Amino acid sequence: MAYPNPPIFAKYYTERAVARKRCPPPPPIPKKFVIFGEQYDLEEPIMKSLPEMGQVQVFQTSEKMPQIKAELKRLNSSIMTMFVDLMQLITNNTGTKHCHEAFQNLRVLFINMHHLINECRISQGYASLVVMQVERLKQLRELSIDVETTRVHILDLLAEARKCSIQVETPFDLESLQQVQKAAQKPPKSMKEAFDSKLTTANRPVALLKTGDLAELLELRGVLKGSNSSQMPM
To answer: What's a single GO CC term here (predicted)?
Structure first.
């Protein structure tokens, strides 16, 4: 799937132009826009008051949470009382006019309570973020404790393994090493010793010898034959 080409004005925002501050400024952010048919204005408050929306306000405006809670409780009690009165009017059937007035009063109370609850959404959002961060911090602390506990447990296992392991020490004998080196430097007295010095086993085939080793063995063989013939009695 091919991505669309960047807009034509992207060529003005190169790294060199941005570093030298020669690129054009970004377009201004619109203050008013429409999303899903709903018009928004960034310069207006997040929530309008009830009188601005053409509704009757029956509660006292306050920015303190204790007073808002008290107003919500008062509205709740008024709604319950008005609902009971409306049920009595409908039951007694005293008149359609009184029932309509009670219904309109109940509607106004519900609108006021709904608006007051919506005004608390911002505080609720901040409180929700605080709770989420506290819970996240708690999880990170528990994870840190678990990691530290696992680390200590692994260190204990390693220490126990070192205690149970067998300590093997190979002594180094300089005198024995010198004797082995002197014995290796002595010339062989027979063909068998020569083969044993060049090969790991006497039964190893001669074909595995190097060229220099084979020439040396042949030369040694001639020397040994010459010495044996000179030692024979005349």
So the answer is: core mediator complex
User: How far, in Å, are 46, 80, 83, 86, 88 from residue 92 at the CA level?
Assistant: 44, 18, 14, 10, 6
Distance between CA 234 and CA 232 in Å, rounded?
7
**219/210 Cα distance (integer angstroms):** 14
The residue written with tokens 């570093």 in the block is 19
Which run of H or of E encompasses 176? helix 174-185
Return d(Cα 104, Cα 80) in angstroms, integer: 14
Closest by CA to 115, choosing from 49, 69, 40, is: 49
Q: Tell me 208's DSSP state.
A: G
Phi-psi sector, 38: left (phi>0), alpha (psi -120 to 50), beta:
beta
The string of pLDDT tens digits covering residues 46-81 is: 778 888 888 888 888 887 888 888 999 999 999 999
pTM of the predicted model as reported, rounded to 2 decimal places = 0.47
